[in-house]
Specification:
The protein is globular. Helix content is 38%, strand content 16%. The protein contains 31 helices and 33 strands.
Length: 923
């Protein structure tokens, strides 16, 4: 009874916050509730019934198992509840989404009571989250001649779980809500500093945009009860930045429709739009929920009489509105004509949002149903010995005779499953591919575990080579929220089969290494496909896609992912890098020169950047591939020379061995298996049997960009441009400025060196700069705080062995202590060097942050408002992104340096250098 009283107490506490009772996932509480339901005189019986029917988390949660068992008792007549008839019990089972509910339904369908068996079969025909244990039972029963099993399999072979669903309505009425001007980061929809609440969907929903925006959305819904509210990024792209399922969940919670009347706070079918469309990773997440993402193109370039763009005083094209989507505008989406209308007036073609595959996602309520449905249909057809019925839209297969393959096309062709045998596929083809490496990070991991539970998955797919659960996003502060969430997450993922940063048994020390760095190390084949729960899952080996927590869960459960083969943009280099420049400046210059080359059009957006770095090892090259998230690319591929790739794989082997030595491998010896794969790959390259991946000489690209290193003659800084008169131009990563722009006078309040954009060489640059400054001036004095967070413990250990860590310790005022981690996030900083725990730190914005109104100079990747910085009264927070030497010098001076000061400070220091390959990296 105590656990129920505790639940009632929690309900009252939530009520004070304007929240409903939290959905039940625990077995003990639900068992108590069932006991009260059985007692017809119990004072809590009525409430207990409501909790049981409407407030239990489905899937494979402990509570779901208890609920399914009780419903089985009711159906068999072992328990009687007048409010829950056997018919209603079957209905409730049909909404439980697999796991224990499927087991119960199979028990009933394959049982001896014919009437019950037939009823159970009818429910099973609507289900699709079946796994090997479930399908094996059906196959065994079929071979024994069980007629119910035959009927179920015949239904699956016809895909009736899909075909009997209602068709997508022809007209969808929407009312617009402009969520903001310019690019809308997922931080606006699901702020990083609220990551701890993501698994509590109703609570997390309170952080969408702002309370004022939520109230405005509610007003629109009340005024237009027959319409869906469409969230819009006016003059921008919707959903840039992190790949957050929680962002889509929040939008769906406020504007979508309830997935099931018996499952609270899980909504589907949100409708989002942007003048420049939807960020690729965000659009994938929208597909997961059966939503719609529109590319509005409602602002277009103003053209002169000669057909050339008219530009403003800054040389940027002037945009003019082609039609209005101001808040409150009523529009019609026609899914048949695939056009957007205002009344009877056609506005734009939106056919890309309604491909045959996307129409299936919309009809089924999400992409999971289609992925699992296809597998189930294939299984049933094989057991029955019949051809697969052409129920689902055939995958689009683009094959062009005589045209070679880009690097990504080669990888997709190698890993493709279910396509026409022997057919070579080019960009634009829809492909199911096997996934080699999967990564889950700690602020989305709890949602990933929920997704796995909801799709009834209990163990990692055997075709995945390796998977890792990180602890980096919550590394800097081990607070009460982390203590409550992270151990639970690590246990779930460890039991599921992932290598986990923290050991639930406490047998090895916590490793808070940045997830992207770990994934970069455990990717030991450049032909690999990687899926990771973070937009910066962009490896310098293989091709990696940042993904939402749902797509990560799907990859873990099935070992597959589905997507079109993206187009590629080829990036090569010419000229010579100046010795006082850092490779980070080349990264920024690439974006700047690309935009200039193409008149402001970002040709990288939504495409693969195939970067021919050739001579840079994976650690150094990662600085480029990581930044491609900010270039709005779908992903990136690094083309390496053979010797360089061998060197990168050797480094990766060493890092994996360290993980093994720490005791992180599991009983399946996943980490040792990765070393074996690396050894095999190295031998293939050395022998010439299979050289390093390169594109074909006859491959076709959307565009080709040649970056001229000769004109990169001063450090380059990514600037949020917070005072741009055009609001849509603020907080984008497209404003790249030379150091001289700031005239050596811009005040810097805080510096940050760390997270995924730095490598060991950056830490050595920092140590050498401090040593040089001490020798030049007799002391090191910081006029602004400098926060340093190495990306991995390996790097710290190597720096200690080489003497650089001693230098950093000498000048630091704080050094992390794993035996006594911080319990409270910093709210202010002293003018000194902070040596922080390896991990994401300031880059995340969910724990440590700069003081409001600060100007931060950082090696980070995020300059969005509300991430590292926030505005203060009368002063805007700014996050300027630059190389390690610029950050360090800025904190020493308390301002941006001029070019002369910069050159003097880096004289004699080995910066991260790059020389273009002299080999033609094609086949």
């Amino acid at each position: 009874m105590n656990i129920y009283n505790d639940y009632l107490k929690e309900i009252e506490e939530r009520k004070a916050q304007g929240l409903h009772p939290k959905p039940i996932d625990g077995a003990e509480l639900l068992s108590t509730i069932i006991t009260q339901i059985k007692d017809v005189d119990n004072a809590n019986r009525e409430d207990s019934l409501k909790f049981f029917i409407y407030n239990v988390v489905p899937g494979t949660t402990p509570a779901a198992g208890v609920k399914a068992s009780f419903l089985k008792e009711i159906i068999l007549g072992d328990s009687a509840v007048k409010e829950i008839t056997p018919v209603f019990a079957f209905e409730l089972l049909s909404h439980m989404k697999g796991g224990p509910s499927i087991e119960v339904l199979l028990d009933l369908a394959l049982g001896n009571d014919t009437a019950i068996a037939n009823d159970a079969a009818e429910v099973l025909k609507t289900q699709f989250f079946l796994y090997e244990a479930d399908t094996n039972r059906l196959e065994v029963a079929f071979k024994k001649g069980n007629t119910v099993a035959v009927a179920i399999l015949e239904s699956y072979a016809k895909a009736e779980f899909f075909t009997k669903l209602p068709e997508v309505v022809e007209e969808i009425k929407v009312v617009t809500y402009v969520a903001g001007e310019g690019d809308i980061s997922t931080d606006l929809l699901s702020p990083g500093n609220q990551a701890h609440s993501r698994s509590d969907r109703e609570l997390h929903g309170k952080c969408l945009i702002s309370p004022e925006a939520q109230a405005e959305i509610e007003v629109l819904k009340a005024q237009h009860p027959d319409k869906s509210v469409m969230l819009i990024a006016e003059k921008g792209t919707m959903g840039v930045g992190s790949s957050r399922m929680s962002g889509v969940n929040n939008v769906a919670l406020w504007t979508g429709k309830q997935a099931s009347p018996y499952v609270p706070f899980i909504n589907i079918a949100p409708i989002v739009a942007g003048t420049n469309g939807i960020s690729p990773i965000f659009l994938t997440t929208v597909d997961v929920t059966g939503g719609i993402g529109l590319d509005l193109k409602n602002w277009v370039k103003k053209i002169d009489e000669n057909g050339n763009p008219i530009r403003n005083e800054n040389g940027e094209p002037i945009l003019e509105q082609s039609y209005s989507v101001a808040t409150g505008t009523v529009l019609t989406i026609n899914t048949k004509t695939k056009k957007l209308y205002n009344g009877n007036h056609e506005l734009i073609d939106i056919s890309k949002a309604f491909t045959p595959q996307k129409m299936e996602f919309i009809k089924a309520g999400g992409s999971y149903a289609i992925v699992f449905g296809k597998k189930l249909q294939t299984f049933a057809s094989k057991v029955l010995g019949i051809a697969i019925a052409p129920v689902f839209a055939p995958s689009k297969e683009v094959s062009i005779d005589g045209q070679g393959l880009t690097a990504v096309e080669k990888i997709f062709n190698k890993n493709a499953v279910g396509n026409t045998p022997g057919k070579v596929l080019h960009a634009g083809s829809d492909v199911r591919v096997t996934v080699n490496i999967v990564g889950s990070q700690d602020t989305t991991g709890l949602m990933t575990s929920q997704e796995l539970e909801s799709m009834a998955a209990t163990v990692i797919s055997p075709i995945v080579d390796g998977a890792y659960q990180s602890g980096c996003h919550t590394a800097s502060v081990w607070d009460n929220k982390s203590k409550a969430n992270i151990p639970r997450l690590m246990k779930f993922m460890n039991d599921f089969g992932l290598i986990t940063a923290r050991d639930p048994k406490g047998e090895y020390p916590a490793m808070t290494d940045v997830i992207h760095k770990v994934l970069n190390d455990i990717t030991v084949d450049e032909w690999a496909i990687i899926i990771g729960g973070d937009s910066h899952t962009r490896m310098s080996k293989g091709v990696a896609f940042g993904a939402d927590s749902g797509t990560v869960a799907l990859a873990l459960a099935t070992g597959e992912a589905s997507m079109p083969i993206p187009e590629s943009v080829k990036v090569t280099f010419k000229g010579e890098m100046k010795n006082y420049m850092d490779f980070r400046d080349v990264v920024h210059a690439t974006q700047s020169q690309m935009l200039k080359t193409f008149g402001g059009e970002n040709v990288f957006q939504g495409r693969i950047i195939e970067v021919h770095l050739g001579t840079l090892t994976a650690d150094q090259a990662f600085t480029f591939t990581d930044w491609t998230a900010e270039m709005k690319a779908k992903a990136s591929i690094c083309i390496s020379e053979d010797d360089t790739l061998i060197q990168s794989l050797a480094i990766a082997k060493g890092r994996i061995q360290i993980m093994i030595d720490k005791g992180m491998d599991n009983e399946k010896q996943v980490l040792q298996g990765l070393i074996d794969i690396a050894n095999n790959r190295i031998e293939e390259i050395k022998s010439g049997a299979k050289p390093a991946l390169v594109p074909d000489a006859t491959a076709k690209y959307y565009a080709e960009v040649i970056i001229d290193l000769d004109i990169v003659d001063e450090p380059m800084i990514a600037d949020p441009d917070v005072n741009n008169a055009d609001v849509s131009k603020r907080y984008t990563h497209d404003t790249i400025r030379p150091l001289s722009f700031y005239g050596g006078v811009k005040k810097v309040d805080l510096g940050f060196v760390g997270s995924c954009m730095v490598h060991k060489g950056d830490m050595k640059i920092l140590a050498q700069m401090l040593k040089n400054i001490d020798e030049q001036y007799g002391k090191v004095e910081f006029k602004a705080p400098l926060v340093v967070a190495p990306p991995t413990y390996n790097i710290v250990d190597e720096l200690k062995a080489e003497g650089d860590w001693d230098i950093l310790q000498k000048y630091s005022g704080f050094e992390f202590d794993d035996n006594a981690p911080k319990g409270i996030a910093r709210t202010s900083y002293e003018k000194m060097l902070y040596l922080e725990r390896p991990g994401c730190n300031l880059c995340m914005g969910n724990q440590e942050k700069a003081e409001k109104g600060d100007t931060v100079m950082a090696t980070s990747t995020r300059l969005f408002q509300g991430r590292v910085v926030e505005d203060a009264d009368g002063k805007k927070g700014e996050s300027l992104l630059s190389s390690t030497p610029v950050v360090v010098l800025s904190t020493i001076l308390g301002r941006t340096p001029n070019i002369e000061e910069y050159k003097a400070a880096v004289k004699g220091i080995n910066l991260t250098q790059f020389a273009p390959s002299h080999r033609l990296l094609v086949k």
